[in-house]
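User: I've been going back and forth on whether these two constructs are worth ordering. Before I decide, could you fold them both?

Assistant: Sure. I'll take them in the order you sent them. The first construct and its structure tokens:
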Amino acid sequence: MVMDHYSHLLSNFRNLLLTTIEPIERTATLPLDIYNWMQKDYTTINQLRLQNQQLQTENLLLKAQQQQMAKLKLEIDRLNRLLGTASQLDASKIQIATVTAYSQTPYAQFYTLNKGALDDVDINQTVIDAKGLIGLITYMTPTSSRVQLITDPDIQVPVRIQRTGQRGILSGMGHDQLSLMFIPNSSSVQEGDLLETSGLGNIFPEGYPVAKISQVSNLKDEPYYEISAEPMADLNRSQKVLILSNQIGEIDVR
């Protein structure tokens, strides 16, 4: 009976002791619990940050791919137009070249192409794009060539007005501007008239679109019109061009 009494007392004391110690244990483990919670929360935030960065990177890559696809589509469209022109010519007498440099100063306007003497390119070969005449090859190296553009002040192109057949000389004025000279003021000429190569001089083959008349002025006491024109070719945008053989004759690329 005495033993039962002591056992009961010990049990009560143990319960009291556990009740007293439990808050202390909780307090002691609280920093560790807070650390674990913060570590878990930090890991979650860090994972979200990494996922966000990954999504941003993927978004940029997708946008870059879209831009590349758009650029590729434009390039395909340009090539289709160019090949449409080339299909009207003898394939053995033309070459497709890439524009690698472009100069447009008031005194020198030219392209540099990636074809040269090793590709059988020669001086005085005509260069066109899908819309019309670009210029004339005036210099070359084994692997490249220079095309003097029709807007260069030192180049002159024998042309005719397609509507009437009236012949004249088209001279470069720089900055996408051309001047049609030696058209008598008694001739029929109007804005919008198309100018094409006449073939005179045996430099430029006959029948290629060159420019469109943009302004006609009848100067007092002058025998000739003052005529301005704009190139048909995309001189500022062409990336692929056709180099024509010197043996190519008349062709209509309109």
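The second construct, handled the same way:
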Amino acid sequence: MADVVPERKTDIGPPKYDSMWPPVIKENFGKWKYHEILEPGVLVHVAENGTKLFTVRCGGTRLMTTLHVENICKLADQFCDGYFRFTTRNNIEFLVSDEKKLEPLKKALAAAGNLPIGGTGAGVTNIVHTQGWVHCHTPAIDASGIVKAVMDELFDYWQSHKLPAQVRISLACCLNMCGAVHCSDISILGVYRKPPVIEHSHLDKMCEVPTTIAACPTAAIKPAKVGDYKSVAVNADRCMF
């Protein structure tokens, strides 16, 4: 009989959804009876057999340093048997199966100073945003600075349940709207108001000129030589902005 070929391991696509579940979730899959919010940022799920799983939600960012992620992992190792997860809005959720570790975890998060608890229920949840100038080549505005400024003003609503319902805010840096602004309660959208200004002395050092020309959907950009620089010119009448 031929040997059974083991399943090929690959890094293409996400892992199977249940491969990284904590044991308490595996054991009670499909058997959760109810859940409730105990306080802003703290939830409890109760299974049919009485098992409880506590979730502590903290604010995260889209762009994190490896040191910050390492500190999050250390907290998860200390209080959550190594288990935590990210939500689609960049929240960090620590999964606590031992109720005795709940209060010590909350105190450790408060001491950390950069992992505020909140974002549940009738308040403001985390702002999701696009990549901005860090990685994308089409943004009209940057993302991180604006998101930080907005959340600084709304932070009290992150840690409270003062609003009639949960409010979701999103930011997209351009009209592509890959930041899900079309399905949020409040949208912040960056738009171009004028044709772009060209810095001829820097363009060929920062951009691939053929790619830049090809990226324009209205063919408003064409190659040009300005002085000693190989650059581009923009036809303002054809420019969509």
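Notes on the second construct follow. Residues 77 and 127 are 27 Å apart (CA to CA). The helical segments are 23-27, 66-79, 102-112, 144-158, 200-206, 209-215.
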